[in-house]
Specification:
Elements (H helix, E strand, L loop, with lengths): L3 H14 L9 H5 L1 H25 L19 E3 L3 E2 L3 E6 L5 H14 L13 E6 L4 H11 L7 E3 L3 E3 L2 E3 L3 H15 L2 E7 L12 H18 L2 E6 L19 H5 L2 E9 L5 E10 L7 E12 L2 E12 L3 H5 L8 H18 L4 E2 H10 L4 H10 L3 E4 L6 E4 L2 H19 L4
Parallel strand pairs: 3-9, 3-10, 4-5, 4-8, 8-9
Antiparallel strand pairs: 1-2, 6-7, 10-11, 11-12, 12-13, 14-16, 15-16
Length: about 425
């Protein structure tokens, strides 16, 4: 089957090879409107016939493009290695991690020309936001205001007009119209879809249906040159698996997008909770590292409180390593695992304080989950001590546990020296 593009090209080529009769018509004919119209009609008919002949001569088959004919282009980054213009991204996390607020923080940075968490400057642009879960007036707009967004550059999708009637916006139905609205605005650099599963009209657990539903989002990102960020949740009962595989629904969600970001609450080396945004997958850049963030309540306008993101330091490691500390599994099997981790910790720390990073490395070598080791440390009241302002964190057990470990080692040595007869 000939594509519309091929048909247009064939028609164009035909027009270039056949001179129009109007241009060569006698002087008297050009002065007569009737003759002029007749000649034009004949010209169009001839061109149509030639175009059809060209189309018939072009056989159906696979279209190939030689690599040397392609113009190699670089990835254009909105936020270097994190958000790419013209690409689809996914922001995932468990409930309560502030995923929507993080997305709004990104929008605030784009619209104000602010700085990203790594300190780099963002070029000014507009942001378009659709949320099926939060009200723009009392929830989303206050958060944007609290984080310094240029409200004149933020657009909320509030509905769609279908057959002359206003209806709620449906991503699965209205993406084409949304793309047209983005084009009219002209400088949209960020588009947020919350939740992204709303763009799937069919079964969100079926690979084929998800891929078909995601394609319009991919096309819209490419056409507008904007970074599209979809928000989603993690599946229950998936603790310990690769973070990218934990996203709710079909694996196609993470396969179609180019970058997957994960938001989670973990325990720091000092034992205190902290939130991190980690890069779980990237087909176009680095796929590790992250940033610490916190959620704070601040006054957007007098009398109106709103959540805001405050970014902290950069952190290293893969998403699996960084998020392992957030896993909590309360099954009975975990109880026995914690017991083994407690015994292992007492033996490890009996000789004195050890740096936390070394404890983690030894736990991995011993086949113990770092999350389990942390729970064991909390149960044993293991002390976390910081070595000066720039030093690392050290773990140390109390004197009672150290004496208990020494006594156990002594008894074991005594039994070895005097075996039963």
């Amino acid at each position: 089957m000939t594509s519309p593009k091929q048909a247009i090209q064939a028609r164009f080529e035909a027009r270039q090879t056949i001179p129009r009769p109007v241009q060569d018509a006698p002087e008297g004919a050009q002065k007569s409107p009737k003759v002029l119209n007749l000649l034009n009609a004949q010209s169009e008919q001839v061109h149509e016939q030639l175009g059809e002949q060209v189309r018939r001569k072009t056989p159906d088959g696979v279209i190939l493009t030689r690599a040397s004919d392609l113009k190699i282009t670089p990835i254009i980054w909105l936020w270097r290695d994190w958000l790419a213009c013209g690409k689809l991204h996914l922001l995932a996390g468990a409930p309560g991690q502030g995923k929507t607020t993080i997305a709004l923080s990104l929008a605030a940075t784009v619209t104000s020309g602010g700085r990203w968490p790594d300190g780099s400057r963002c070029p000014v642009g507009s942001a378009l936001i659709w949320s099926g879960e939060d009200d723009p007036a009392d929830t989303l707009a206050p958060r944007l205001k609290a984080m310094g967004a240029d409200m004149d550059r933020v657009y909320f999708v509030s509905g769609a007009r279908v057959d002359g009637e206003e209806q709620p916006f449906d991503p699965a139905r209205d993406l084409i119209q949304l793309a047209a609205a983005v084009e009219r605005i002209g400088d949209v650099r960020l588009i947020v879809v919350d939740p992204i599963v709303s763009a799937v009209a069919g079964d969100s657990h079926k690979n084929t249906e998800v891929r078909r539903a995601m394609q319009p989002l991919v096309d819209m990102a490419a056409t507008a040159g904007a970074a599209v960020v979809g928000i989603t949740h993690l599946s229950k009962g998936t603790a310990g698996r690769d973070p990218t595989e934990r996203v709710t629904g079909s694996i196609a969600f993470t396969a179609v997008v180019r970058v997957v970001l994960m938001a989670a609450k973990v325990k720091g080396e000092d034992g205190e909770d902290r939130r991190i945004l980690a890069r779980s997958k990237s087909n176009i850049g680095p796929d590790n590292g992250g940033f610490v963030y916190s959620l704070e309540q601040t006054e957007a306008i007098p009398g109106v409180q709103a959540s805001a993101v405050r970014w902290g330091e950069a952190i290293e490691g893969t998403a699996r390593e960084l998020l392992a500390e957030s896993e909590t599994d309360r099954d009975d099997d975990e109880g026995s695992a914690k017991g083994r981790a407690e015994a292992w910790l007492i033996e490890l720390l009996a000789g004195g304080a050890i740096q936390a990073k070394q404890v983690q490395a030894d736990a991995k070598e011993a086949g113990l989950s770092w999350a389990t080791v942390r729970r064991a440390a909390d149960s044993l009241n293991v002390a976390r001590i910081k070595d000066g302002l720039r030093g690392g964190w050290y773990w140390r057990i109390n004197d009672r546990l150290r004496d208990q470990a020494a006594q156990g080692a002594h008894e074991g040595a005594h039994e070895g020296a005097h075996p039963e007869q």
